Amino acid sequence: MKRPRQALALAVAAATLVAAACSDPPTSGGDAARTDGEDDGDGEAGLPECPLDALDEADGPVEVTLWYGGIGGPTEDTLEALVADFNAGQDRVELVASSQGGSFAEVYRKFESAAAADTGQLPDIVMLESTELQSLADGGLVLPAEACMDAAGYEVTDIEPAVRAAFSIDDVLYPGYMNVSSQVLYYNKAHWELAGLDPDETPQTLDEVVEVARTLKERGVSERPLSFKASHAVFVNWLSGEGVDVLDNGNGHDGLATEATLDDPVAVEALETLRQMNDEGLLNAFGNVEGSVDHFLALVTQQSSMLIETSTASATIAQAVEGTITPAEAGIDFDASVIERATLVPGTAPFPGLSRAGQVSAGGAGFFIVGTADPAEQAASWAFLEFMLQPENAQRWHVEGGYLPIVKSVKDEPGVQSFWQDDMAGVLLQPAVDQLADADPDQPGPLAGPYPDLVDGIQGAIEAVLFDGADPAAALAAAQDDVTESLERYAAD
Fold first, then answer.
1. Residue range(s) defining the domain that contains residue 405
2. Which of 105, 106, 233, 273 is the right S-S partner for 101, CB 3.0 to 4.6 Å?
3. What is the structure's pLDDT at 428?
4. pTM of the model
């Protein structure tokens, strides 16, 4: 892989993506996408067969089950509406969507347990985080959706390149549709005004975040200006934006990752900057606790003026200010007079990188076709995912569901354009849309079988520095050793 140089209604729950629990890895060695073993003429084995004909040959409607979790509110409502419309619009497939828990981790645990029990109770489609991609492929548990795209004549290049890169192994796309988000900077424009800062100018780098935080604190605007949750996703995006891998073998994309490379000078410097901010009282630090919204509340209660979080938080923050200001007042037509009736005037900006803004990789989850399903059920599962990929439905998943558009043409739709201008959530989402379109597909982020251990290692190092006073280099070195041990065990099994 090419690599360049190295209040809010308190009851509102934020959607939090949490890595699934660690488990013993399967044993297929990452070749699940290439099950036929035949050369396709380009020096690579071909895609497995997607049995689309099985749906045509079925006697009556084929019933398929979708397992999902970790979504709620408008996103879950949108999924249920799309499923209902899919069922009503044709008579060959009957899809039943079933929530399996409040987190992606819970869904994965149930999926893993059902697979181990081998009782035939697996769903036909499962929504799981991108962090499970390697283990799903290695276990042969999913049929690469690109095989169905190829069989159906769907042009995979209609999907954003950075999205394809993040959800592929050996250039094979595994899920048939993706719930994509990226990291952005949320900030309170009212605080910018009170501090004498230009609300249209936001920090482009972590160093600039430090300078803005100092200004906000020195001028008495916020007690601890940057609300910061110890997040592996933020840290990995900082490093990948500089071409720095956290795993060997091209971050796991050039071969199975067997060694962590966390103890890197760029990583140490970034963690040292966080430590310095914490020592100066510029950082409002929070541990990464499943379901916690404390880091959001810090922004809303004005303890903090900035927050780095996933773009899916836009709906939560929009709901916080519903009825107090209009989208125009928070967006391009921002007027300081609005501060008189709103203490929170939310804005979003591209993710502040280490050297420049907007350097992100696609994160989120995917809809995977289960590999053990009967041929007719696999074909029926693809029928639903093909339905999701239609521009009008991809638009709904963005506008109503809150995820970023992955089908390129969606961004040009008039309904999407008006959403970005006239809806508060849309105003807040647009910077994430723009930076995803510009994201480097050669920097898709790490790929690992025991990904939860990588998450634990990075977040553990951050928390050790911020909460226990550990030395950044020592914390990263210890995490590197632990993650390497996990990678070695996975590779050996």
1. 42-181+361-412
2. 106
3. 95
4. 0.87
